[in-house]
Structure prediction request, 149 residues.
Amino acid sequence: MKQHLAFATVCSISLLLSGCMVGPKYVKPTVPMAPGFKEQPPESFKEVDGWKPAQPGDQTLRGKWWEIFGDPQLNALEEELTVSNQNLKVAEARFRQARAMIRFNRSAEFPTISTSPSIVNERESANQLLGVAREQWHGSLHPAAGSLL
Prediction:
């Protein structure tokens, strides 16, 4: 028995240690780069044709940007578009409303699952008459009610 235990221990330790072996050292392969895709260093930007420094326009118009062009026909088209855009929004809202109504009406075609959970604590009295049904004891068929008539 001790030999089996020793053999199992040696096998498990060797399996654990073999899982920790690391393969050969990884060497990243070299890939040649095309010179046409390399960016030039920042010092040479001023000397290269086609490059110009950025000119941020944070102060320019953001609302009616088309007025920069000074074209009255373009301005008139944009004003017409503003009105048409509101009409388009109304039409899109009506379309969504109609689609929702169709879904609501179609939902009546599918089965409905509902529950009505309740808890009732009820038990039979130990003092009831033997052999008399419960329905006869309660209500108009009460044995005493017949004797009163």
In short: The first helix runs from residue 2 to 18.
